[in-house]
Amino acid sequence: MSSSEQPFNEKVFSSEEELLPSTTEHKNETLSIQNIEKPSTDSKEGCACSHKSNNMIPIQYVYAIGKVIHRFPNKSVEMELAQTIGRIPEMETKSFTNPEVAHKVFTDPNNRYIARQICYILTIEGLETYILVPSDPLDFDRLAQALRPAPDIGDIDVIIGRRGPMASPEMCNGLVVPIVIVDQIYSFDRETLMKSIPKRKEKGTSEDQFRKTADAVFNYLIQIADNAGAIDEHRALNYLAVRYDEIYYRTQLLQDENYSFTGIEVRPSLLSGTQKIVDVIFSYENRANRALQKWFCRVNVTGEWPYLVSPMREYFER
User: Fold this and answer.
1) 232-241 pLDDT tens trace
2) For the chain, what are the domain ranges?
3) CA dihedral sign of residues 23, 27, 28, 30
């Protein structure tokens, strides 16, 4: 998906009644990298058995917000790109920046062999966090599109997938970070995200003020320390940041009542049984008398795609 498209094929945010478990067809939920899971060979025949014993490594899902960049795995691939650019007519590259020319090459169907060879890296807060490998080879095109022709500080990529092993030093020119098997990627920019929030007419609140509030809440969510989108709490927060508009509207409504947004806490829900459900609690403090209000919603993070269990409502400590 190019950065010029809408953030999601569906609406970025859904109303409460529309938020249901994702109907997206899931890929195989076993990592496709060799030797991640080793079948048991405890039987007398030595055959691979279906017992799910300690040999099985639990799948770790990732729902991360960052920015996709590229690196060359070796000098050979880098020089092949340079030679490919050199064969492009001068009229098609003159006056363009390096990212623009590289984007032109990576997204050209004739050059897919190069797009398949480069390393795609997800950076979070400027740190190289994951090496991205698509579960479907056709999705190399979507990763290539995520390399914008004009990179900007507001670029956002949402990566949904499954965490694999640490990359070997040979995989990406010495970079040793976890591999993520990518099942879905959304690419857009911050301005598009903010504009995608459905408009509501709230008395006394200007559109400009609401945009500032939404931007501040989004910043807080994605800048929480060590939020690499790999644990249930962070996956829930990242999901809400790009899929649930009520967190932004509730914050604005409380600010209109002279409350300030003070923080977020994520706790395992008492409703959790065989499912993994978390309560995401937003705290607000009255600026005049320091009275506290807390609001929360529940998110199911059992599977690869989190979803809303219950809408935002006031929270009372038990």
Assistant:
1) 999 999 999 9
2) 30-40+55-196, 198-318
3) negative
